[in-house]
Amino acid sequence: TEGKLNNSFVQKAKDFFEEESFEILETKVEEGYNPDEEVEKHLQADIIILQTPVNWFGAPWIYKKYVDEVFNNGLHSQKFLSGDGRTREDTTKQYGTGGKLHSKKFMICATFNSPAESFNNPSQLLMRGKNTADLFLNITSNYRFCGVDILPEYNCFDIFKNENIAKDLENYPKHLAKALHL
């Protein structure tokens, strides 16, 4: 696979956003990054998209490393958030409401080897009715904690046996337009 399918989804998204006159900031985590620069990219972005293969029911380990470094930088610099939202003076404030990245949006586009039928189906033994949003909760919670709105994800399933990958790629711009109300 060597990342070709994920690169194809990246290109589809880039084409879509260029047609809509968006400026594109891109990071390929596996090629290296500077946490300070990534914090600034997050601050500049209106929409953040994680394009990822799903490995062992999550994003590859290097993405977790990225999040740890970039989000800790955003925490310590207080550019992503200042505290967790709670205060001793106002006990009605909830945990996770201290984010500063309001009006930004985050979306995951993922490629799975598992079939779509594995999700949202209580009779499936592995996921037991859970959906992909449940699977990605550890990723989306980081963004929500910082004040970012979470958009519905886009998934390409059964990548080694799926005869509809071309259709999944073709439908991706339609999903982006709908999710972003464009």
Q: Strand-and-helix sequence, N→C?
A: HHEHEHHEEH
What is the CA-based Rg, rounded?
17 Å
- List low-pLDDT spans: none
β content, as a range? 5-15%
Distance between the termini: 32 Å
Main pleated sheet: 4 strands, parallel
Number-wise, the strands total 4
On the 0 to 100 scale, the average pLDDT is: 91
What does this structure look like?
There is one protein chain. The chain is α/β, with parallel strands linked by helices. The chain has helices at residues 4-19, 35-44, 61-76, 132-135, 137-145, 165-179; strands spanning 47-53, 105-111, 149-150, 154-156. Strands 1, 2, 3 and 4 form a 4-stranded parallel sheet that branches. The two termini are 32 Å apart. The model has no long low-confidence stretch (mean pLDDT 91).
